[in-house]
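Please fill in the sequence for the structure shown.

STRUCTURE ENCODING:
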């Protein structure tokens, strides 16, 4: 997966390509994980039935962060 970094103005300031692992949990629910170049680990629980996502990020410098919210699928 390639993701793009944006600054506060929405300008593209970089990108990274990572290998992801996707594990189906149930219909429409997926566990998605990856490790970034700086050893940051990311764990997503993506629920396409409820359009919700829970993200846990472990950063080597700042520790664990957790985010949760709604998501919109785009074509």
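FILLED IN BY: designer on duty
SEQUENCE:
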């Amino acid at each position: 997966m390639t993701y793009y970094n944006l600054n506060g103005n929405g300008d593209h300031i970089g990108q990274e390509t990572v290998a992801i692992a996707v594990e189906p949990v149930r219909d429409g629910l997926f566990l998605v994980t990856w490790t970034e170049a700086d050893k940051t680990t990311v764990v997503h629980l993506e629920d396409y039935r409820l359009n919700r996502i829970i993200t846990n990020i472990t950063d080597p410098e700042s520790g664990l962060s957790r985010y949760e919210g709604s998501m919109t699928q785009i074509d």
